[in-house]
Amino acid sequence: MDLQPFGKTALVTGASMGIGRAIAKGLAAEGVQVAVVARRTHLLEELASEIEQGQGPRPLLIVQDIMARDAAPRLRDAALAGLGHIDILVNCAGGSRPLPIDAPEDKWEEAITLNFTRQRQITHALLPQMIEHKWGRIINITGKSEPEGLNAAFAAKAAVHAWAKGLSREIGQHGITVNCIPPGRIMSEQIRRNYPEDYRKHFAEEEIPVRYWGEPEDLAALAVFLASPVARYITGTVIPVDGGLRRYQF
Predict the structure, then answer these.
(1) For 55, which DSSP code?
(2) Model pTM?
(3) d(CA 242, CA 1)
(4) Does 240 or 147 have the greater pLDDT score?
(5) Residue 149 burial (C-beta neighbours within 10 Å; 0-12, 13-18, 19+)
(6) How high is the pLDDT of residue 250?
(7) Residue 37 backbone class (left: φ over 0; alpha: ψ -120 to 50; beta: rest)
(8) pLDDT reading at 163 higher than 80
């Protein structure tokens, strides 16, 4: 399938590793000019080299901690200064935040800021120029809806789903789509650090119908498709990439 994304530009947060990195590489492979955002400069530079070796356009590197109070306007300004405009936004930065029931308020605020507030702010900062161009793609990498315990990130990601659905109804008329992708068990540095191989093998055999943990590229394939012009009629959706892990039908 010809995805037709040539000539487009994208901003990908959380791009130094894992899912964000795979999405950035996938978009660049389709000819998209990508601005990649993360805190660690050396990882962004390694990503840029990999993209260039794959014959993709060299990405714009933006070293930024999205937890900073002024992260949204700074990212917008840096991306627009480097690329002129942004067609595609991939909100991938985030992190799991399991908390005890007596967790202090600041831990909840941190989790909500990281996993919901900054995504919302960055999106709204870029929306005016998408509306002006009558074209845009917003893709949010979220989280599962079956929490096994108290985790502030799950609450924040549920907020992203509700916000994205409402936003999709407001801006569809401008040629802008908004979709969410909740990952299942996708291999990453954090997964390898926190879950030993024997646990991963047992979990896959017992819980994942396809019997293995996914790779970042498995999710990136869907993200690149949703970012393309051919996905123009898909908006307001939540599409898991989890090997069948979810147990409910809707």
Answers:
(1) T
(2) 0.95
(3) 23
(4) 240
(5) exposed
(6) 67
(7) beta
(8) yes
